[in-house]
Amino acid sequence: MRPVIAAASAAGPLSKYLHLPIRVLPGVHEIEAGIFEGTPESEAANGYGRYPLAWALQGNRDLRIPGSIDGNEFDARMDGSLQEIYDNGDRNAVVFS
Description:
single chain
């Protein structure tokens, strides 16, 4: 299942319960794995997973996932979508990704 479809599917029950629509924002989706695409999750700690951890824990946002994005690009993407939620007036938003 594609990530956007999976997130929308996961959001479905809450959306239905609250009688609120699901909005899909372009900046809210998984981090592209680049050269690590298709590798087992069990290998993430020694590959793909090191990059988001370096962005978050070491502040090393210039570190780029080979074949993908760096932490600054990820932050800009997410910040844009979070700003859109705020500008829309949503104060109790729930985000699925």
